[in-house]
Design a protein that fits this description.
The chain is α+β, with helices and mostly antiparallel strands and 381 residues long. The chain has 10 helices and 10 strands. It has a 5-stranded mixed sheet, with helices on both faces. A 3-stranded antiparallel sheet has the order 1-2-3. It is globular, with a radius of gyration of 22 Å. About 5% of the residues have low confidence.
C-alpha cells in the first residue's frame, strides 16, 4: 500500500515539474515568508494565499536552512564562472538545469526597475524559500508523506557520517582526484557535488543529476574519480545501481581510467540462517545486487559492520532535534575499482588500515548524542 501511494505521489510530482520552470509558481497575492523564535532551533516557512484563513507552515532546523542558503548562493555565484577545462571527470547526461526557475542570471545582473519594485535580494530570498518548500514536500512524498507530520520514513534518506567521508578522502584521494556523493539530497549532502533524484530543483544546491545519468566516462588528464554510493535500501534501486556501477567499471577498464566506488548497503549474504524473519526478507530481496558486487572481479574489499555497532545520520535530520540513528541491520561497505585504480590507496596505506578507520568512524553516535542532550537538560534546570 505504501509503495502504491508513493508511486502515485511520484507521478503527480512529475506532472507538476513544469510549474517550477522559468517562472515563479506564486500567484498574485500569494506570500511566502519565514519566522523564527529566539528560543527555538527551528525556522518556519509560511505560505499563504488571500482565500486561505491561515497559511501552511513548514518547519526546518535553522542550521540546515542556512546550509541550504549557503549552497544556493555558492552555486549561483559560480554559475557564470564555470570553466569547462577545470570540471571533474563526471559526465552527466542530463538537461541544462540552469534554464529552470529561478534563472541563475538573477544573481549576475542588477535589477533595474521602478523604486517600488522588489529588490534583487528580495527576489532571491523568495525564490529560495519556494524551492525549499518544494523540496520539503517532494522528499516527504518519497517517504510516504509522513515525514513532515510525524518524522516517519527518514531512514530511507539516511547518510553516512561526515567523518567517514574524511577518512575516504584521506585514504584514497591523490592529486587532482574528485569525489561525488552518489545518492543524496540537498538536506543530507555532505560533499559539494552530489547526485540526487530531483535534479530540476536540486541543482540549485550542487546536484549534478541523477546517479544513473552519470556515465563517468570522460577523459580529463590523469585524474582519478571516486564515488560514494549509499542508495535507498530498496531492491530495485540497489539492483539498478549495481548494474550501472559494473557497466561503467567495464568501460573504465577498456579506456584505462582510474575509477573507484565505495558502496554502502545492507549485508545480504545467504549464509546466516539465524536471522529473524524480518531480516531474512530484507536480505533475500537485496541478495541479487549484493552478490553481483561482492563476487565481481572489481571488488577489492568487503567490510561488514555489525548491527547496533554502527550508525548513520538520520534522514530527517533537517526536521528533528537529533542527528544520529543506530543501524538495526548489518551493513556492508564494498569497494569496487577499475583495474587502473586498484593500487590507488594513497601514502602507502593498506586496505586493512582503511577498514580500521572506517569501523571507527562508522561507530554509532546515537547513545552519545542522547546522553549529551540529557546533560544539557540537567544543566539548564
Amino acid at each position: 500500500e505504501l509503495c502504491r501511494k508513493t508511486n502515485l505521489a511520484c507521478q503527480e510530482l512529475l506532472s507538476q515539474r513544469d510549474r517550477y520552470r522559468r517562472q515563479s509558481p506564486l500567484k498574485k497575492g500569494d506570500r511566502i515568508y519565514t519566522e523564527t523564535s529566539a528560543n527555538s532551533p527551528t525556522l518556519t516557512i509560511l505560505y499563504s494565499r488571500k482565500k486561505w484563513k491561515k497559511p501552511f507552515a513548514f518547519k526546518i532546523n535553522q542550521l540546515h536552512y542556512q546550509k541550504l542558503k549557503d549552497r544556493y548562493v555558492q552555486v549561483h555565484e559560480n554559475e557564470g564562472k564555470r570553466d569547462t577545462s577545470s570540471q571533474s571527470t563526471t559526465t552527466v547526461a542530463t538537461k541544462d538545469f540552469s534554464s529552470y526557475w529561478p534563472p541563475s542570471s538573477l544573481i549576475s545582473y542588477s535589477y533595474h526597475k521602478k523604486d517600488d519594485s522588489p529588490s534583487k535580494d528580495t527576489i532571491l530570498d523568495r525564490s529560495f524559500n519556494v524551492i525549499v518548500l518544494a523540496l520539503l514536500l517532494r522528499y516527504s512524498a518519497l517517504s510516504g508523506g509522513q515525514l513532515l507530520d510525524d518524522l516517519r520514513g527518514g531512514g530511507m534518506q539516511g547518510s553516512i557520517h561526515g567523518s567517514v567521508f574524511q577518512v575516504l578522502q584521506t585514504r584514497f584521494s591523490a592529486g587532482n582526484s574528485s569525489w561525488l556523493e552518489g545518492f543524496a539530497s540537498p538536506f543530507n549532502a555532505t560533499l559539494s557535488r552530489f547526485a540526487s533524484v530531483f535534479p530540476d530543483l536540486d541543482w540549485h544546491f550542487g546536484s549534478v543529476g541523477t546517479f544513473f545519468d552519470c556515465t563517468f566516462n570522460s577523459d580529463v588528464g590523469d585524474d582519478s574519480e571516486f564515488i560514494e554510493a549509499n542508495p535507498p535500501f530498496t531492491p530495485g534501486i540497489m539492483q539498478a545501481m549495481a548494474d550501472h556501477i559494473l557497466r561503467v567499471l567495464h568501460y573504465a577498464d577498456v579506456n584505462k581510467r582510474r575509477l573507484t566506488f565505495v558502496v554502502v548497503i545492507p549485508s545480504a549474504s545467504k549464509d546466516n540462517p539465524s536471522d529473524k524473519d524480518g531480516a531474512a526478507v530484507v536480505k533475500k530481496a537485496a541478495s541479487c545486487s549484493f552478490e553481483s558486487m561482492v563476487s565481481s572481479s572489481h571488488c577489492t574489499k568487503h567490510i561488514r559492520l555489525r548491527a547496533r555497532e554502527h550508525g548513520y545520520v538520520e534522514g530527517s535530520q533537517h526536521l528533528r532535534p537529533t542527528m544520529y540513528k543506530q543501524s538495526s541491520y548489518d551493513t556492508s561497505v564494498i569497494i569496487l575499482q577499475s583495474v587502473e585504480a586498484m593500487n590507488e590507496v594513497s601514502g602507502g596505506n593498506t586496505l586493512e588500515q582503511l577498514e580500521m578507520d572506517l569501523r571507527r568512524t562508522f561507530a554509532s553516535r546515537h547513545k552519545e548524542e542522547l546522553n549529551d542532550r540529557k546533560r544539557k537538560r540537567k544543566s539548564q534546570c
